[in-house]
Write a structure and sequence with these properties.
By secondary structure, the protein is α/β, with parallel strands linked by helices. The chain has one domain: Rossmann fold, CATH 3.40.50. The protein contains twelve helices and nine strands. It has a nine-stranded mixed beta sheet, sandwiched between helices. α8 links the parallel β6 and β7. The longest helix is centred in the N-terminal third of the chain and has 25 residues. The termini are far apart. The N terminus is likely disordered. Belongs to the methyltransferase superfamily. LCMT family.
Amino acid sequence: PSSQPAKCMASRPPVADSDVADEAVRSTCDDASICKRFATSQGYWTDPYIQYFVRQMGERKAPEINRGYYARVQGMSHLLDAFLKRTQCDCQVVNLGAGLDTTFWRLKAENTLPKKYFEVDFPMIVARKIHHIKTKPPLSKPLIETHSADSLLLDGHNLDSDRYCIIGADLRDISSLEEKLRKFQIITELPTLFLSECVLVYMTPEQSSRLVHWVANTFHTAMFINYEQKERFLLTGWESVNALDMMAVYGLLPQEDISRIERLEFLDEKELLHQLLQHYSICWAVKDTLSLGEFNIFPHQR
């Protein structure tokens, strides 16, 4: 159905400070997770951990949705991996609005974990994620393997270990967010990557600008990857900002892998995929106090 791409790529409730609006935002976590679970089941990319967070794949998704998620996941991963490589993993990662994301487990399996990996989301979503981790050994075992003490700090809305931390917080409340990150030993002098897959778009422009400005002011060397727009970064203290629409990202990904995923499902209307991908972009902003140098994220990027 024609409404499917809009629902799966970014359901966008009206911005309002109300429980109803917040619940609509929280529901996008499930939408995205189910879409990713389905795409991995079709072979678009490998994620052995998502099955422990999302049991059901829901209804079949259109091929353009699966390809859109493939481009989004691979694009974000390319940027993250480039940052980890440039800093030699001597850094931190903060995933804002992480939902049921499985990146920590991927990095642990690939032996490319940063010094510490933080996730922040609504307390209700965090509580669900913590429950999955506690009750499923394939999720808890990698976490325990990276922790030196006998016990983890664990309550309903926070989990803290040596290398992984989940925090229940509202991103609109900067002072509370900063307090919690500092409580769990974030180091503002260490190069820090902020990931924001689909978060800022659900905040008012004032709220999102405050968040982005706080990151630029607080962290000495930082990168902010955002699956949305670039203008706000230039106005909030970042030194450089780059952006590519998802059609460009799709074209810059390894061609042998593009050929592989395009054989998975027949796509009747390529124009629909092009329209969908051109509607979204990935942008990355950099504040480079330590002179880490330019990030050549995509090998074929000119």
